[in-house]
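ARCHIVE CARD
Drawer: 12
Card no.: 0347
Subject: one protein chain, sequence and derived structure
Cross-reference: see card 0346
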Amino acid sequence: MPEPSSEASRILGDRLRLRRRQLSLNQEEVAHLAGLNVSNYARIDRGHGNPTFHTLIRLATVLGLEPGELMSGFSAEHLPVSRDDREAALVRRLR
């Protein structure tokens, strides 16, 4: 199984999966209720997806959560390092 695309994706997937299981729902049920393709939801639930803002709101609603409950506690450290981040680090080292 591939690694999550970022620590943020992994944490979000953990939160979604925990709540889904608390409600005794399967991935297909959540996807259907949120109006998502099952395979797309499954990727998010496993920590491999990067859902849009609207998708997060739909999922929170289906799971009886406030969107903020899914998003709390994240910072830039949870994101993957981008090409721009690497270039900025290189420029700082060269100064």
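Annotation on reverse: The helical segments are 7-22, 27-34, 38-45, 53-62, 67-71, 83-94. Residues 7-94 form a domain with the 434 Repressor (Amino-terminal Domain) fold (CATH 1.10.260.40).
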